[in-house]
Sequence to fold (845 residues):
Amino acid sequence: MLPLLTSLLRHRHRHRHVILLRRQSKPYSSSSNVEPNLNLPIPLSSPTYFIWSSNTSLGKTLVSAGIAASFLLSSHQPLLRKRFLYLKPVQTGFPSDSDSRFVFSKISALSARQTLSRSILATDRVLKASCPSVVAALPGGEVGDGGGMLDFESSYRECRIPGEEDGEHSELMCETMFAWREAVSPHLAAGRENGMVEDSDLVGILRRRLNCGFSEEKMNAFCVVETAGGIASPGPSGTLQCDLYRPFRLPAILVGDGRLGGISGTISAYESLKLRGYDVVAVVIEDHGLENEVPLGSYLRQSVPVLVLPSIPQDLSDDLMEWFDAARGVFDSLVKTMVSAQSERIKRLHEMPKKAMDVFWWPFTQHSLVSVEDVTVIDSRCGENFAVFKAQNNGVMTQQFDACASWWTQGPDSTLQTELARDMGYAAARYGHVMFPENVYEPALECAELLLEGVGKGWASRTYFSDNGSTAIEIALKMAFRKFLYDHGGLSNSVNDNSAERSTQLMVLALTGSYHGDTLGAMEAQAPSSYTGFLQQPWYTGRGLFLSPPTVFLSNNTWNLSLPEGMHSNKLKDADITFSSRNEVFNTSRDKSNLAEIYSSYISFELARYPESKVIQGAGGMHLVDPLFQRVLVNVCRSKSIPIIFDEVFTGFWRLGTETATKLLSCVPDIACYGKLMTGGIIPLSVTLATESVFESFIGDSKLTALLHGHSYSAHALGCTAATKAIRWFKDPQTNKNLNSEGSSLKEMWDEELVHKLSSHPAVQRVVALGTIFALELRAEGSNAGYASIYARSLLKKLREEDDLYMRPLGNVLYLMCGPCTSTQICTQVLFKLYKRLDEFSKNQ
Fold:
């Protein structure tokens, strides 16, 4: 790259001084010039807004300039020091067209026309520009032909407008972040000029500029970020700008269209913003004599003000000074509206924790242990991250990674989140809610077909929809009870007499440590635990035979098998209880091992202890139960005609790295339950799948033999629509880049080297990493161990408050959970944060 000649222009009142600087300019590298940490907090101490428009050339920049003039030149509080930050992330047509230069020059000119109490320093600069645009801006300058985006911060100009009072000046800071020469859509300009910019780089720089704009000094500040083109115009990478800027979710000012046809375009733009979760504070249109503001105000139900600007002069030689004077009242009203909305928002955010403490009864929460300071204020969600309000320094908004996947439900990235919102909006508009029994509608039918072709492929033929995981289990139990009685002749005395004495005692065969939900029937199918104790469930009896299963975990770089009492044998060798890799644990060649025989004998012995009981097996749980044990358990139960239930509410739809756990276990159930990730986690919906033989056990001449269980919102159109989108999205390699080449499983989500380092950490007892889950158990004894433990509280506080990882522990067990589409880079980052904090935690114990 040859030396680049650039100019630094300084304006002192009406005198121009030109200083020529020679510097070595380097092409912009999108991978190296952006901080990897994009979680810089955004200050909320001052109004910060996006300026959108329903189309290009509707006056966004005029509105930005008018807001700046009203704020900086207002007679209200004239002695107060002010700072106005104007940001233009994307500019095409540069240098002949520069919106930041326009705002800079107009505010400078307007300021010079009136007497100021405090002087104003106005500045304008461009951070990065394409080679062609730099050549056009600096005729005669020498620029290499290597392409890329160049540092162009030296294209700096400033103008100081004097005021009556001595002392510190107010500031107008105008910045263009990225500029291209051709006056076309940014994605075309970036491609044609070899000046591509990744979304993460643009978002990262914008976040830094917003942070730096207000954090340096305490003053009365205001910021607008002006977008390019219309709401859905592409950014440099091709991503629509309404999606590109969604992580910020700044409140919006929408510049609408006052021309003929503008009502429709303005409403469409408004709905596009609302669909993505933006708050539109005001709509501004130019007066074309058509009174578009009347139908717009009616559509918005007067909840969003519609302001009308005077008609803009078409004479290009007009300096617009008189127009700005005529529009001053409108802009003053707009600024007042923006400041008021900001004030109301901040007030509400500050009061929410206290109000929540007063009115909420949170589940799984001991309120006496929670202070107001412990309450997390979630403003919004974008993909895997919460936008969390923190009250420090008059308020900041920061991004927190949802490391517990909001109780194991979440899977969408930001793109899928928008897709789900759009499809569910369509379903709500088309169907609202319609009842399900004896009816059919497309979302429910399509969802059922996908379920049977996917997680139920090869075994299931029927879908029974319900509300959530616990209700799906209740339905599964009723199915299994009937199937068992049907197969073993237990219905002969009760078909015609529904009040017949129930002489048959039915039980479940389940695993200790498993959890199937909090409804009464689901709790009866669980072993005694903290959830089923007398304080929580006085009716609980535990109607089952509960087996303690062998579990597998990683410790000191080795996968180990932990056997419960009753399974130890002299026949076992080290090769039976240690494994070189996790894949070896799931290998079906173990079915012929000594351990398989031990498992079979143990299960058969336990079943023989209850010769008069009829047993139904329900499998599931949070532990990594040895897959060999589960296969043996299924085989033993099947040999005794005991129906098999798989509880996949948590594990299904790629949570464990495959679409269904049947792929990992190499066996299938008679009945299986799904929920959570089935809809992408965006709305509750569950389903119980069953074989045809289970279905046939309910067929008869009387309605009393049917399955009399239902929910008002069974198979609701919104949930079925979301499920259809999520199921397809997760298994499509075009939308889920984490799928392996065969599309049968996810690639390794958690960095293997880091996982093994954590397994050898002195503070760690054991580790499990599988699919989207990483879990570790801290070494702890006595009251520091178990579900009620608060041993990890200080560690969790650090991770949440300083590392922006939102985690909820299970006692002394910590876990991280990503989505099927989460980038492995993000997984590595959060895992490294945990490792770093573990070191600190260990040293302080």
User: Anything to note?
Assistant: Residues 17-348 form a domain with the Rossmann fold fold (CATH 3.40.50.300).
